[in-house]
Amino acid sequence: MLYRRIIFNHVVSIITTLLFLVISTYCWFNLKNQVVYKEYKKDNISVSSEVAFNSLKKIADNELNDLNSYDFSISNTGNELENIKITIVPDLLSKNVSNNYVKYSINNKDIQSLNMDGIIYVANLSQKETKNINLKLWISNTYQGDLNYNGRLIVS
Question: What is the largest CA-CA distance in the chain?
């Protein structure tokens, strides 16, 4: 009887330890890999609207005119020159689409593929200057994987 009790206590200790290790490892990986959108706001920069997108369409580049655009403006409300950049930040679940399949066009100019850092626009804004942005964003029709690309733009 004593022998059974000792074995039972050891088994319970081993199961408890394994359960603790599994739960703590799971929590550590989820917190480590979690995407956190930091606010990169500058004091003298205002953006007319927050741009978030979900379920981007897969289209050919020549069908660009059929695509809805994201329209917003960026203003320098201060009295000094400000450097700005616009970055596309995908949601955590959108990582399955490689950046080279994400295409964009700003103000109906050249069609470009998203680079690795996600920066799509860099500019200087003079004092009291406003820039209007017309952004079209889509997935290349050559992409063969699952379509689930969600995210948002950050102006910093």
Answer: 85
